[in-house]
Amino acid sequence: MSDFAASDQPAVLTARDVRKAFQVGDRSIEILHGAHIDLYQGERLCLMGASGAGKSTFLHILGLLEEPTEGDVTIGGKDAWRLPSSDRARLRNQHLGFVFQFYHLLPELSAVENVLVPAMIAHAHGDRKMDRAADKSRARDLLVKFGLEKRLDHRPGQLSGGERQRVAVARALFLDPEILIADEPTGNLDTATGEAVLELLLDEQRERNLSLLLVTHDERLSARCDRTLYMEDGQIQADTGVVIPH
Amino acid sequence: MYKSFLSWRYLVARRTNLIGIAGITVGVGALILILSIMTGFLEETKNTLRGSLADIVIEPSPYDRMDTEEPPEPGPFLEVVRKNQYVAGATAHLTWGGILAREGYASAASSAGMSGTLGNGMPIVQLIGIDVEEELASTDFEAALLREPPAGDLFARRIAVEDPKHPFRAPSDAPSDDFLRPWVVVGERVALENQLHRGSVINVATIAFDGKGNAAQSNREYRVAATFRSGENEADSTRVYMDRDALMDLLGDRMNFSQIVVRLEDYDRDKDAARSSLGEDLVAAGLLDGRGLKWEVRTWEDLRKNFLAAVENERLLMAIMLGLVLMVAGFTVFAILSMMVTEKRRDIGTLTALGATPNGIMVLFLMIGFWDALLGASIGATLGTLGALNIDAIERKLSETIGFQIFDRNVYMFDHIPAVVDPSAVVLFVLGAFACALLFAAVPAWRAARMHPIDALRYE
Asked: Which of A160, A233, B206, B433 is most deeply buried (CB count within 10 A of its CB)?
């Protein structure tokens, strides 16, 4: 049991008895066999496991991108998979920030515009007023803070891998989500660049008191987290309960 | 907001989208340009036909035009017709067919008895006997006498009338010793094709009936006083106008008239009412038999309905064919958007992860079709309208440049290319372009909306 679980920090994300089966021909193959998780406010939680263990599928279900066959996922007090798809999209937009291994920036947009996309979507949901000048200024400030002051109007194709991932982190943080989901955020970067991006990510997490759910193969990343869960054969096997002083 | 923003960015980033926009531009522009010309052509033709005919023609059925023991006089008919509330003027016509030969040819009368003479260049003409004073008051005959050929028409052969109020009077320079040949007015094309000039002698031959069913050959010589230009090719290349008494003489005084031609106060407003009330008036006066068999009351549109229907039909066919251009443009939009949806799978996954809904994704791709339609239809409507309004100048410039007359004004006897831009048609074509583009964009947009975000994110 980690300090977070023992403390009175609220769980911002919980998953209970999550199962996922895929239909292959006339066979049903179950990938997740009742996985569960609690992610607390301000916690860094690492999810590790061998390839094919089911951690990506679990992460996608927690990120509301893949529907579980059974089980519940609660985010912001709402049973996410029982909501209509439009409300679930809104929950994704408001409560979750994603950082992908391959950045997934929109190639037609500049760095600043990429950062603004979640705000535009929130505006389309009617959850947020769009103040073009103020939002643009905030996006610029964030990118400047991440060391991209000379790359603000560059498109992804004109940026290095590390710069792209910084833009992706800025985009994930722009709407101040409660939860940051990072899928191998340094997996496509060299060691030095990866380390720099990780520092930036962890600094922001601490500064904003975000909950970070990190999926990685890298033991060094796991060592920087409060807690590490291992997945094996579609189930959570162990909770290290390691607490790393920040 | 992100939908319009991103769809515009996708549009401008992919040059292939220009093909879809260009297709819609061509479709809308061609529809407006060609159909404006067709509409103008129809309107101009109607005006010309209406000018060369009367508003309403009352004539016997073909079976009753001959073999009459006592040929009827036009007076009683005209008296009834002129009393009708819708009628502005009416006059009698005697029309008959004949063969024309100019001076120097073998006698048309003897030629008419030979086989194959018509193929040797003696044209069949329509002889029209008129009462000049009433004719001028009831038809556009005077305007046709005074109408000048189009500027620059090198082939025009106009013989100007000396006194339009008395077109069959001998001109001042006429030979003083010729009292026997009546003076006639021929169509401008008749004069051109037979090399006629003022004072030319023409020989007209025909077959007349004696009232007992016997046909007899008849011919007379006439002198050409002037030409007329109605603007209708058929009238100008076949008609010969003369005094009704002169034509009655050619026909052996067996016919007095064959038509009552009527001008209405307001044709467009009254045509149907006038046609039926004229019929009723003539039946009530005992001049028509009431079954509509012996005499017919018809508007000029009834008389030319086949021709007008053909032009109208041609316009419809053109609209359908040009509509196919829009369909092809729609398929292009479909193909480009389908490619784009495949290319943008990762973006679709990313946008879903960032909170976009499937509907939002669908609208995003539909909006690319919307932009295609907006740009294509706007440019097409502007170019098409400008082209239609300036088609004459454009055609002249093009003809000059390539050294070939694209629009032969002599064929249609128009001195300009007629074009009428109908604003409601322009709106219809623009809406059609939008409907087409959105319809064809709907399928790839729907496919994008149904894409699984994880499949999209994993796509490399």
From this structure: B433
